[in-house]
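Subject: Sanity check before I submit

Could someone independently write out the structure tokens for this chain? I want to compare against mine line by line before I put it in a report. The sequence has 120 residues.
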Amino acid sequence: MSPFKGQTGIKRIFNAGGYSLDGLRAAFTGEAAFRQLVLLNVVLIPLSFFLHVSRVERALLIAVCLLALIVELLNSAVEAAIDRISLDLHPLSKNAKDMGSAAQFIALTMITLVWAVILI
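---
Independent answer below. Compare away.
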């Protein structure tokens, strides 16, 4: 057992929930890209309920939007970890940040493609 592990049981669940809220708060206040994606989700998710699509299609429309938020959180976490290690320019740091950015690009492309395929 790791000495860095915290509580167990219900206390652990409450702590994890608090850490998650802290992460969402940090992303919202510190990451413009996350705020932009939240705005996109605030528009697209309610819009999906006004479209004449099946439940499965609606679920896909919503899922790809939420996936982009998840990818942005992970991308921001990678960037923060890299910056914590060093602010020096290094090829491996650049690769890590560029790969996170590429993942987000693919997630945004997926939103576009899924919405286009379902609506067209």
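---
OP: Matches mine. For the report I'm noting this point. The chain has one domain: 32-119.
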